[in-house]
Write a structure and sequence with these properties.
The structure is a single chain. By secondary structure, the chain is α+β, with helices and mostly antiparallel strands. It has two domains: 213 residues, Arc Repressor Mutant, subunit A (Orthogonal Bundle), CATH 1.10.10.10; 117 residues, SCP2 sterol-binding domain (Nonspecific Lipid-transfer Protein, Chain A). Helices cover 45% and strands 13% of the residues. It has 14 helices and nine strands. β6 and β7 form a beta hairpin. α11 packs across α13. The chain is globular, with a radius of gyration of 21 Å.
């Protein structure tokens, strides 16, 4: 299957809208400050301290527009009354916690979510995700020139900037070159970024479905291929399994239904291949809607998916492996 292309330089993919909030460290601080109850602007300023009132007002207005903070419960100026977290705001706070946990595992050492290094890392991650760089690099190395040929609709200078940011923040790293150009591969830290991206994607589908990008083949394939590189399987695991999603937008149809996913080959507990393809008659499979997959990967509850085929235990091992690799205790 060909690598999907970005359609424009400014494309925003599923998960990008909420993730991008935390490129501004003030947003996480505001959400966290409201976690214990409603706050007035002055009370918020006392808790955060360093931000000017005008800066806080702008951030509050943005979070309010996204539905993270409740509108005033009484008349008068919005900022003279208490603001409180909505259900959407609490979900965004959970995303902030996943971003913070991911930043703590940075290869160069833990990164504080309220620092400039965090801002750079989140921006680099959002740029790589939206431009499909992460999807392209998920399975193999590419040089910048090769990526320019693969990813249409994004200019060479823009790709170069994004690749440079991803390298400088530790999301990708160079590998030995045999010819022209430097090939790059993803790091384990970039693979672990699927946790905050999945959390951000679920938040968008629950609370911002009309304002955020739909889940497509690009996000499904990229997330599976990157996260499966973290999965630990029992040595008894063997066989071929398809992990498939009913995305909100997909080109491939099996039996009249839109599907996206990957086919995984496992030998003695090791994943030997993971291809971005779905089959009409896979030997074993796990299947569910995009929303179901998000819940299962984040929370567990594996029975919500449909498992079938010759080796359903293999499918269950892969799905549970995804959950525990991304959201298990201590990020195991």
């Amino acid at each position: 299957m060909a690598t999907p292309d970005a359609t424009s330089e400014g494309e925003v993919r599923a998960g990008s809208l909420v993730l991008a909030l935390f490129a501004n460290p003030l947003n996480a601080q505001i959400l966290r400050a409201h976690a214990d109850g409603p706050l007035r602007l002055n009370g918020l300023h006392e808790r955060i301290g360093w931000a000017a009132h005008t800066t806080l007002r702008a951030a509050l207005a943005n979070l309010g527009a996204l539905g993270a903070l409740a509108p005033p419960r009484s008349g008068g100026s919005r900022f003279a009354v208490e603001n409180e977290l909505t259900a959407a705001g609490r979900e965004m706070l959970l995303v902030a916690e996943e971003v913070e946990a991911w930043l703590a595992r940075a290869p160069q050492g833990p990164i504080a979510i309220d620092g400039e290094a965090a801002k750079a890392a989140v921006k680099a991650l959002a740029g790589g995700w939206s431009s499909t760089l992460m999807r392209s690099l998920a399975n193999r190395s590419f040089t910048l020139t090769e990526l320019d040929q693969l990813i249409l609709g994004v200019s060479y200078p823009s790709l170069e900037r994004r690749l440079t940011r991803m390298r400088s923040t530790g999301l990708i790293e160079p590998v030995g070159a045999g010819g022209r150009g430097t090939p790059y591969v993803v790091t384990e830290w970039l693979r672990r970024s699927i946790a905050p991206l999945v959390a951000a994607g679920r938040c968008e589908r629950r609370y911002l479905p009309d304002r955020s990008a739909p889940i497509t083949e690009v996000e499904v394939e990229g997330a599976f291929m990157l996260a499966l590189g973290l999965v630990t399987l029992p040595q008894s695991a063997n066989g071929t399994c398809m992990l498939a999603v009913h995305p909100e937008a997909a080109e491939t149809k099996i039996n009249g239904r839109c599907l996206a996913g990957v086919t995984v080959e496992v030998e003695r507990g090791e994943i030997v291949s993971c291809a971005p393809q779905v089959r009409e008659k896979p030997p074993t499979w796990a299947l569910g809607s995009a929303e179901t997959w998000l819940d299962v990967v984040i929370d567990g509850g594996f029975e919500a998916l449909s498992f079938s085929g010759a080796r359903p235990q293999l499918a269950l091992d892969l799905v549970s492996g995804l959950h525990f690799a991304l959201f298990g205790p201590a990020g195991t």
